[in-house]
């Protein structure tokens, strides 16, 4: 092992489930500053488990930032592109935090507990940056900002069987939980007929949980936030019941197929929500928010580039960074690409110059030294299957 590799290993963070992943023989790799499982049985098998049955992910690497205080709603509205005014308690919104330039600090979920208490769930690779940005912009507001990322663990249970499994295995009846809603509850104790968890992983009685229904896979599912003890207990019970553990590899193939962005690929400091085709999550009719002037100009005057989908007429796989060309000229580059597991098609998302973004436009993707013909299409390659 090189000295630099050893230093990297020593500086990587681990989640509360790291020992479970290692014991299962997961393929581990750095992601967002954490040592995370990429796959267990294989990306295709795990992908299909989520599409057709159920799978679970350790997403404890995600960040949680609590904003509280008398002006919490006003402040969240200032740093967040979606409109939080009038949002009911127990509801969630997706949106972005922007730089003054209109570029994206991060895309995130905002959970409303009350007018004075909001939870921001941010991407793992951006936790420190996001927290610093929120604190910096909180000056002048009567709010308190707390980074709770080291307290919460999180499991995502995803797939068409997830509601039944949550009830049968965890004792949680979530049938009444609406899409983009959440509840605060407690983890029911194990009872007869339920799979047993590791006795050493049993949390205290009435262990509090936050359970939401969003999903980054295009399938119905839930997110469980809780203490490390609670999350280990949930993982063990789901494993004992035969739920498929899934790594970040298939999490990426799943989100990609349904056109969901990944920060650093379809969104970044240099990519605005309008350029990413996510302008519907930026509400211009609300009071001032960071980046509003620039985004308003982009919405009214248009942008010079945009992210679109491309379907190749070949089985070659377009990867992030590969050039996209037209008549020998580079017109953009791939942001994410795969041979879609659910459709069997070679597809990608790509940032292209605006004049080439109409559906049906013929383009070519350069893969190594060869050009492969393709056509611009919708960036959603597979239909979502969320709870109606």
Report on the structure:
The chain is α+β, with helices and mostly antiparallel strands and 388 residues long. The chain has nine helices and 19 strands. It has helices at 3-11, 18-23, 43-52, 72-79, 127-137, 162-170, 228-240, 248-257, 292-301, and strands at 27-31, 34-39, 55-58, 63-68, 92-98, 104-114, 117-122, 144-147, 153-158, 182-186, 208-212, 221-226, 244-246, 305-312, 323-326, 329-339, 346-353, 362-367, 370-377. A six-stranded mixed β-sheet has the order 10-11-12-9-3-13, with helices on both faces. It has a six-stranded antiparallel barrel with strand order 14-17-16-15-18-19. A five-stranded antiparallel β-sheet has the order 5-6-7-4-8, with helices on one face. Strand 1 and strand 2 (34-39) form a beta hairpin. Helix 3 (43-52) crosses helix 8. The model is unreliable at 1-8 (pLDDT under 50).
Determine the N-to-C terminus distance. Answer: 51 Å
* SS field, number of helical segments: 9
Q: What is the number of beta strands?
A: 19
User: Major β-sheet, in short?
Assistant: 6 strands, mixed
Strand fraction equals 25-35%
Compressed to H and E, one letter per element, the order equals: HHEEHEEHEEEHEEHEEEHEHHEEEEEE
Quaternary organisation of the protein chains: single chain
Share of residues in helices: 10-25%
Q: Quickly give the structural class.
A: alpha+beta
- The order of strands across the largest sheet is 10-11-12-9-3-13
Mean pLDDT, to the nearest integer, reads: 94
| Low-pLDDT segments | 1-8
Shape: globular
């Amino acid at each position: 092992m090189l000295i630099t590799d050893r230093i990297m290993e020593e500086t990587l963070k681990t989640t509360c489930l790291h020992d479970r992943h290692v014991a299962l023989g997961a393929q581990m790799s750095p992601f967002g500053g954490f040592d995370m499982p990429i796959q267990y049985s294989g990306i295709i098998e795990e992908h299909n488990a989520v599409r057709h049955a159920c799978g679970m992910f350790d997403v404890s690497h995600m960040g949680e930032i609590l904003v509280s205080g008398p002006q919490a709603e006003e402040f969240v509205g200032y740093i967040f592109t979606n409109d939080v005014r009038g949002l009911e308690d127990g509801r969630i919104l997706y949106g972005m935090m922007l730089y003054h330039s209109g570029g994206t600090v991060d895309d995130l979920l905002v959970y409303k507990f009350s007018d004075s208490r909001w939870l921001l769930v941010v991407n793992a690779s951006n936790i420190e940056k996001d927290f610093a940005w929120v604190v910096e912009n909180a000056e002048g507001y009567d709010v308190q900002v707390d980074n709770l990322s080291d307290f919460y663990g999180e499991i995502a249970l995803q797939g068409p069987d997830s509601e039944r499994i949550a009830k049968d295995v965890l004792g949680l009846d979530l049938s009444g939980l609406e899409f983009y809603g959440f509840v605060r509850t407690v983890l029911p104790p194990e009872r007869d007929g339920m799979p047993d968890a590791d006795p050493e992983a049993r949390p205290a009685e009435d262990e509090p949980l936050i359970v939401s229904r969003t999903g980054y896979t295009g399938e119905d599912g839930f997110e469980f936030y809780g203490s490390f003890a609670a999350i280990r207990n949930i993982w063990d019970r789901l494993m004992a019941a035969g739920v498929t553990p899934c790594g970040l590899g298939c999490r990426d193939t799943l989100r990609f197929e349904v056109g969901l962005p990944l920060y650093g690929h379809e969104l970044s400091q240099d990519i605005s929500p309008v350029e990413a085709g996510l302008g519907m999550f930026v509400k211009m009719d609300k009071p001032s928010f960071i980046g509003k002037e620039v985004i308003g100009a982009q919405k009214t005057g248009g942008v010079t580039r945009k992210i679109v989908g491309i379907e190749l007429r070949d089985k070659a796989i377009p990867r992030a960074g590969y050039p996209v060309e037209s008549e020998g000229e580079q017109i953009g580059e791939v942001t994410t690409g795969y041979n879609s597991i659910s459709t069997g098609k070679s597809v990608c998302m790509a940032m292209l110059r605006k004049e080439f973004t109409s559906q049906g436009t013929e383009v070519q993707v350069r893969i190594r030294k060869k050009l492969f013909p393709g056509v611009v299409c919708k960036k959603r390659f597979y239909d979502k299957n969320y709870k109606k």
